[in-house]
Design brief:
four-stranded parallel β-sheet; 4 strands; 9% strand
Length: 209
């Protein structure tokens, strides 16, 4: 049979806190896996010496730019960028971020924030501000698309969208193929002047036979 001591050991509900780990690990590990995604991804890329491939393909019409670009995207599993897909992907990423921030704010609003916990309060305020910015960008993009009644033809607007798009880690860490745009060296210099880590590292120029 089981004596009283063994029985007590079996039924005791212990709440064990990993005190050593909490005190010695980086504070960022107190956050969720999602919140640490950028850090984990960066660490993985650096530790494995991975270098995202970023390709710019240029050439005259019917030179096979699109076919080559799509084959490269399929082979390397990277993003395919044209004037139109840049806008579509940008809108999708903004929408995903908007949903995430709304969820986070809803979760925090259900919790009582004490006067002493100012860091959490500041975090909520920062997320609220970011949400406003994201929603403003979505509204502006909808307005531009409505006015264009189709693909955006203004190169300056597309260039600004591309710059914003390249600020997303999931783009710069994975890589992309730019299909025929930007189509001038001056535009490439303008877009990537201060963004060396996001700039194309492979240039392909196609010609007609």
């Amino acid at each position: 049979g089981i004596d009283e001591v063994i029985y007590d050991h079996l039924v005791t509900n212990l709440n064990v806190t990993p005190k050593y780990l909490i005190e010695h690990l980086d504070k960022k590990f107190n956050e969720s896996f999602y919140d640490n995604g950028a850090f984990i991804q960066k660490q993985y890329v650096e530790d494995n010496r991975l270098k995202p491939i970023r390709i710019l393909i240029d050439g005259p019409p019917l030179s096979g730019k699109t076919r080559l670009a799509m084959k490269l995207c399929e082979h390397y599993n990277i993003h395919y960028f044209t004037n139109e897909t840049i806008t579509t992907l940008y809108r999708e990423l903004l929408t995903v971020r908007e949903k995430y921030l709304k969820t986070k704010l809803r979760e925090k609003s259900t919790e009582e924030i004490s006067q002493e916990d100012l860091s959490e309060d500041n975090s909520k305020s920062a997320e609220s501000e970011e949400l406003k910015i994201i929603q403003s960008k979505i509204a502006e993009l909808k307005r531009v698309l409505y006015e264009c009644n189709g693909p955006i033809t203004d190169e300056n607007i597309v260039m600004n969208i591309l710059e914003e798009l390249l600020s997303f880690k999931r783009i710069t860490n994975i890589g992309y193929v730019l299909d025929g745009w930007p189509n001038t060296y001056e535009l490439v210099k303008e877009i990537f002047a201060t963004k060396d880590k996001m700039a194309p590292n492979v240039f392909i120029k196609l010609d007609l036979d």
